[in-house]
């Protein structure tokens, strides 16, 4: 029994001495080391003399802090003797795995290299009060700690400075949250693997190349949430997944993602003022870049330029301006859905050799043309609203389906041929004027249907009570279809003369007692409702004196016309109005539908 125990101890000593070289280098073990766990109590005895001496000159951390089991709790409010500086004057007992530092208002905490000495601390947390407190962690602060994959947390502190080479070595988990000002210096993060979360940082200052492990490996995952970033220009290396969630970013600078591979870049729910030229360039290689539910001010020209992005996603963003040549990508799947964009300059997007492109459910205010000459089987441009499309903006081979434009439907389709050379009549929806809405029971309809229904046989038709009516139809209905225009005119003149004569005679016979209109009452008389008459008069008087429309209307409302004459005159006015006035048109059509409908059902 005894001899076996002695033998084991001897073997242990031999093993530890032969492992001496390895111990002097920062070597990390698993979170719960199997043999390290047994040796920790007597660990001090196993160290080489230099280390032991070094340790002996130090003051045990537990003399100042509250230590229990594997934990040390250092509270500046309660432990008044504790120095603000964690350095080689303090000794962290080898059994301690967990250190929590609690700051008090005004604490300026600094941590230096050599605070740790062959420790295996898995958790190091600094919790502040957010009032005049500060944390600074300097170069190699953790390099003599060998706890596997240590967890470093800094919370609720006013200012935090993470100096150059703050993290070196292998694997870490870092969380900084609820901090007013966080500065991460250039080359601060030089470890191989890092899982980094930065949350609720009011002013986050990530200096250029803050992440710089110097190895081409997707070992760094970065997640920034609910923070304000002035300039994002940090990524000189390869990263794993980078997520920016609900952040406000003033500027994503030129070359922010240069010389970089990022496995996945997600920007979600953010507000970005400017994405500068060359922000994401051809040096960026990424499996997936997604910009989602983000408000963006301007995307500058060449912001996303020839990037090696496999899948690019833009969903639900609100973008004020996209400049010419802003997005130029090769060989990708590109999905642009549910975005709202105000000003999209010509050639804002250019995609070549894409496997799949889908641009759907977007709303564009001013839409500039772009190159989308991808085979129609791999490219779809559908359900988009282009309020004000520039000419030529649908002139591409990409398949177009159900695209709404702000142009008002009319029988003159010349605007459509300006948009595209392709036959898209049945895919492009124009905006129905209010007066035509009833006949379609919609606010939009495709150009082909409109032309078929509203512009049949080259005659403009009018929508009344949900039905289309034309002058030609009314002519036919009243059996005058065969008459020439000359004959109609002649008939009108004769009829008018006759009527005038009769009216005058009647008026004379009945005298003034029976009122003005009383004698003219007849089934064949044109009766214009008082309200329509007044409004028409008012509208006519707004027109210029010499205008034919004005004269026509005044004649119509002042003359005593037969139903037929009245009907013809109305359509004459409608067809010859030089600039269509919706108000006049609808008044005239209201009159027609009230008084003339039975004569001209189509
Ligand atoms: C440190 O603070 C703890 C309370 O967290 C207290 O129990 C302990 O006695 C203090 N130690 C010293 C040395 O002040
Ligand atoms: C687009 O927006 C609609 C409603 O606003 C929503 O139902 C749909 O899921 C969104 N689609 C995507 C891809 O975000
Ligand atoms: C269309 O996509 C398929 C696979 O998705 C791909 O094989 C083909 O090359 C693409 N066509 C073009 C013209 O890019
Ligand atoms: C459409 O594109 C073709 C070839 O690129 C060009 O010749 C034509 O003028 C364009 N038409 C319009 C309406 O932009
Ligand atoms: C159609 O509209 C265009 C401009 O919008 C105009 O130049 C052209 O003369 C119109 N054509 C007809 C037949 O009215
Ligand atoms: C008009 O459309 C609505 C819904 O789209 C429908 O409920 C209504 O019945 C339609 N009216 C007519 C007259 O077709
Ligand atoms: C419509 O007018 C065009 C010229 O303006 C003419 O070529 C065409 O034949 C007309 N169509 C019908 C149905 O009258």
UniProtKB/TrEMBL annotation:
Keywords, comma-separated and alphabetical: Membrane, Signal, Transmembrane, Transmembrane helix
Domain of life: Eukaryota
Residues annotated as transmembrane: 483-507
Signal peptide: 1-22
GO terms (BP aspect): long-term memory; neuromuscular synaptic transmission
Listed GO CC annotations: synapse
This protein's name: GD17185
Gene giving rise to this polypeptide: Dsim\GD17185
